[in-house]
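Private note to self, pasted from the team thread so I don't lose it. Backbone tokens:
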């Protein structure tokens, strides 16, 4: 069987960009990575969402840089 060294990107294509995901702790229901719209996964939006209480208890933010 032929193998390829190509790996698909998990970050949307386009100009240089960084996409951020937030891990949220839901207490007895466990931790999760909530669904995020790729167009609004920038740092400023993630920070505003945290300040507005969009997450119950954010425990980790990770960024994927493409470019």
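Design output:
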């Amino acid at each position: 069987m032929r193998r390829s060294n190509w790996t698909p990107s998990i970050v949307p294509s386009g100009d240089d960009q960084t996409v951020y995901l937030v891990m949220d702790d839901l207490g007895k229901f466990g931790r999760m990575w909530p669904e995020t719209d790729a167009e609004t996964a920038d740092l400023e939006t993630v920070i505003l969402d945290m300040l507005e209480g969009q997450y119950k208890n954010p425990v980790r933010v990770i960024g994927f840089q493409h470019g």
